[in-house]
């Protein structure tokens, strides 16, 4: 089992990392490199744009403590609606910045918003990523594509019992299943919005 944290919120350093270190546990932190040390402005529409993010000193401290750092894109964009040049830039720039700042080899990626398709996976592989995480609504199988690693979502409303059941059984909720089956239609809508110059969501 692996623990991952997306976005790099400052509260990770304040709460999660010390708690994990006390238990001799580590995790992977997926960071959108354009926002390290700043605010989560991509969440402004949700009213969360002022949330503070980890700074580079925090990131380096986490790496020194044994935590892995991976890419979450450079500007936290929907990768599957970008043209090829912008897609490659998002993946390559983020990887290089992380490697330069942490002096580690970065091989893992978490797709922003969980969005990806064959074009995105091919670009990720070409950029040097060996593993990439989607959102996923079930337990990842070892024979599945390492560029399509499923993850189980844990949110603040979940009880300890629900988190344990999720980790051991990997059962998605009805709402999660519904979202998975509407993904192709939603992708078309997002591509149309991107072509028209609309905001990401």
List the helices and strands and how they pair.
Elements: E1 4-6, H1 11-22, E2 28-31, H2 56-64, E3 68-71, H3 84-102, E4 108-110, H4 118-127, E5 131-133, H5 160-169, H6 174-181, H7 183-195
Domain module tally: 1
Counted by DSSP, the helix tally is: 7
| Mean pLDDT over the residues | 87
| Gross geometry | globular
If you consult CATH, what is the topology?
A: TIM Barrel
CATH class: Alpha Beta
Report how far apart the termini are.
29 Å
Q: Got a strand count?
A: 5
Report the sheet with the most strands, covering strand number, pairing sense and barrel closure.
3 strands, parallel
Order of helices and strands: EHEHEHEHEHHH
Residue runs with pLDDT of under 50 for 5 or more positions: none
CATH superfamily: Glycoside hydrolase/deacetylase
Strand order of the largest sheet: 1-2-3
- Summing up helix and strand content along with how strands pair, one would put the structural category as mainly alpha
Radius of gyration: 17 Å
Question: Helical content, roughly?
Answer: 40-55%
Protein model, in words:
Helix 3 runs parallel beside helix 4. A 3-stranded parallel beta sheet has the order 1-2-3. A two-stranded parallel ribbon has the order 4-5. The protein has 201 residues and is mainly α. The two termini are 29 Å apart. 40% of the residues lie in helices and 8% in strands. It is built from 7 helices and 5 strands; from the N terminus they run E-H-E-H-E-H-E-H-E-H-H-H. It has a single domain (4-195), classed as Glycoside hydrolase/deacetylase (TIM Barrel), CATH 3.20.20.370. The mean pLDDT is 87. Helix 2 links the parallel strand 2 (28-31) and strand 3 (68-71). It is globular and about 45 Å long. It has helices spanning 11-22, 56-64, 84-102, 118-127, 160-169, 174-181, 183-195; strands at residues 4-6, 28-31, 68-71, 108-110, 131-133.
């Amino acid at each position: 089992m692996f623990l991952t944290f997306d976005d790099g919120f400052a509260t990770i350093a304040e709460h999660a990392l010390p708690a994990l270190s006390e238990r001799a546990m580590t995790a992977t932190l997926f960071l959108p490199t354009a926002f390290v040390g700043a605010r989560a402005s991509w969440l402004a529409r949700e009213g969360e744009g002022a949330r503070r993010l980890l700074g580079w000193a925090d990131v380096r401290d986490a790496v020194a403590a044994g935590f892995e750092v991976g890419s979450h894109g450079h500007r936290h964009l929907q990768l599957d609606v970008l043209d090829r040049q912008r897609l490659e830039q998002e993946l390559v720039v983020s990887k290089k910045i992380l490697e330069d700042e942490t002096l580690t080899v970065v091989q893992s990626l978490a797709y922003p918003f969980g969005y990806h398709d064959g074009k995105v996976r091919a670009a990720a592989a070409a950029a040097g990523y060996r593993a990439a995480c989607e959102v996923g609504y079930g337990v990842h199988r070892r024979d599945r594509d390492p560029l399509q690693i499923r993850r189980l979502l844990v949110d603040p409303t979940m009880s300890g019992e629900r988190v344990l059941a999720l980790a051991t059984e990997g059962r998605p909720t009805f709402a999660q299943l519904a979202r998975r089956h509407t993904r192709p239609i939603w992708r078309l809508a997002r591509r149309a919005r991107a072509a028209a110059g609309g905001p990401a969501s």
